[in-house]
Write a structure and sequence with these properties.
The protein is α/β, with parallel strands linked by helices. It folds into two domains: 4-204 and 285-307, Alpha-Beta Barrel (TIM Barrel), CATH 3.20.20.70; 207-282, no CATH class. It is 42% helix and 15% strand. It has 14 helices and eleven strands. It has an eight-stranded parallel beta sheet. A three-stranded antiparallel beta sheet has the order 7-11-10, covered by helices on one side. Strand 3, helix 4 (77-87) and strand 4 form a beta-alpha-beta unit. Helix 2 runs parallel beside helix 3 and helix 8 (176-184) packs across helix 14 (292-311). The radius of gyration is 19 Å and the shape is globular. The model has no long low-confidence stretch (mean pLDDT 94).
Length: 317
Amino acid sequence: MENRITSLFNIQLPIIQGGMIWNSGWKLAAAVSNSGGLGLIGAGSMYPDVFREHVQKCKAATDKVFGVNLPLLYPQMDEMIDIVLEEGVKVVFTSAGNPKTYTSRLQEKGITVVHVVSSVKFALKAQEAGVDAIVAEGFEAGGHNGRDETTTLCLIPMVAKAVRIPVIAAGGIATGNAMLAAMILGADGVQMGSRFAASTESSSHQNFKDEIVKAREGDTMLTLKDVTPVRLIKNSFFDQINTAILNGATPDEQREILGRGRAKKGMFEGDLENGELEIGQVSGLIDSILPVQQIINDIMKEFHESLNQMNSKKYLF
């Protein structure tokens, strides 16, 4: 398959793995890249020395292109950028900040830059900042999310209409038919997080992977909208923070309840009651933990089957 996204990244398939904190270590990134997609190391949960180690291990594990995801709101970002440059990373996805901050500096070194947005407004700002492509992430997505709560079905065609650069769809995509739907809506490729969180190579705790498989419709909800919107599986921590919000807790009071290391506790350490369990609504469709290669093979098989069905006579009304 060849289009603007596969050409931009020099990959075989327009499938990008989400750079999820506590899930996207070097093993997952290398596995996705080795399977024909674009793997991303999720730097948001890493100190600089750990980040460098993951980049170096990923380079040793694949001769394919891989990238890193850098949430710009995190501290020590200048040091992380220096590591990207020193280690020769070819692709950087930025999120949660101003794309103008580092885009030019990275591109001057031949690095492809992609920015994650949740609205047409910010898609246009990212294009103005000069990024090479954008990820348009709908409300269904897990982890950090947009405040406008625009669904992927609405967001993708609006963004694709508004910008000239390639668009990668994200949020609620874990299957081949969803990938096809996103591309029909105007996306050039897709980014999948939740499906790869429940993979053999994901660096998250087995307890969290099992919880993803158990999740059903309605088991996740967007919360902490006054602090940093995040979609979580409902558990004891979710009940605590949600009750506080309903009772009028201020943003500072919400931050106090949240504390530090809550996401690590849930996703990396496997505390299913007191940790943040960040995952997308599409977890309700995920019923198995599989190796990355099988996940991608299944996605592409379904993609082509769905495309063939659309082209068959029974869809001609």
